[in-house]
């Protein structure tokens, strides 16, 4: 069966703005891409302040955080695709929740690292979760409202910039970078968990259930069809022999 969308429904910004699932994903993206932007702005100063490095050395180490973007964001998208293949839309949802919660945990651990080497290692692990959560967010976006996918991408993408500004203001009220990162880690973890009751996007594709189960059903259907054809062929042969 081929899925056909209603042709009388037009794309509408108001429909996007009124959709609660859009705002759920805006908040989720504020806690991953927004976090990435905020960390890019502050991580070099953190190393400078916490470990007494020169700004040049601190900036060089900080660049490792962004370097993970070369592949980690794609990893998040591929994980979402793999989970969708196995479990359908719940797979996309819970893979994203796991990445978001992992991001929060890694950020809390990173903020508590007492040595430079341990901090660099945990920063890289934290970065992998951040970028992967960005990819898994956009693994869900196309299913929210297919007719308004472009507008939804714009809204969710803007959530990243909103998050970066919000986290910057939060740091103004915190005494030091380490405590600020720890607080942000708890916030991200909580937002990730909130994805369980708040993300309820349905599968808007032509199929329901996992691709694996669909493939099994298709195989069974084809096998049954081949058996019917075989029986029909034998029946015809018997009829011809009788003639």
Write a structural description.
The protein is mostly helical and 243 residues long. It is 79% helix and 0% strand. It is built from 10 helices and no strands. The protein has helices spanning 13-18, 20-30, 33-51, 55-67, 72-87, 89-111, 116-140, 149-172, 177-198, 211-242. The longest helix has 32 residues, at 211-242. The model is unreliable at 234-243 (pLDDT under 50).
Strand elements, count: 0
What is the ordering of alpha helices and beta strands? HHHHHHHHHH
Shape: elongated
Structural class: mainly alpha
Topology:
Layout: H1 13-18, H2 20-30, H3 33-51, H4 55-67, H5 72-87, H6 89-111, H7 116-140, H8 149-172, H9 177-198, H10 211-242
């Amino acid at each position: 069966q081929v899925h056909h969308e209603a042709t009388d429904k037009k794309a509408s910004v108001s429909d996007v703005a009124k959709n609660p699932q859009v705002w759920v994903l805006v908040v989720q993206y504020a806690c991953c891409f927004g976090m990435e932007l905020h960390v890019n702005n502050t991580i070099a100063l953190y190393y400078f302040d916490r470990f007494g490095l020169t700004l040049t050395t601190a900036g060089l180490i900080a660049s490792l955080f962004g370097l993970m973007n070369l592949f980690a964001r794609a990893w998040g998208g591929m994980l979402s695709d793999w989970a969708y293949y196995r479990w359908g839309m719940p797979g996309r949802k819970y893979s994203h929740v796991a990445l978001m919660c992992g991001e929060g945990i890694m950020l809390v651990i990173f903020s508590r690292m007492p040595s430079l080497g341990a901090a660099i290692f945990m920063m890289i692990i934290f970065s992998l979760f951040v970028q992967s959560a960005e990819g898994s967010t956009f693994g869900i976006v196309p299913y929210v409202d297919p007719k308004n996918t472009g507008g939804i991408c714009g809204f969710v993408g803007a959530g990243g910039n909103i998050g970066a500004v919000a986290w910057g203001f939060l740091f103004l009220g915190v005494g030091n970078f380490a405590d600020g990162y720890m607080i942000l880690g708890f916030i991200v973890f909580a937002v990730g968990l909130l994805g369980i009751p708040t993300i309820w996007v349905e599968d808007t594709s032509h199929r329901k259930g996992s691709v694996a189960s669909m493939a099994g059903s298709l195989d069974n259907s084809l096998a049954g069809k081949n058996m019917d054809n075989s029986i029909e062929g034998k029946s015809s042969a018997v009829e011809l022999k009788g003639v």
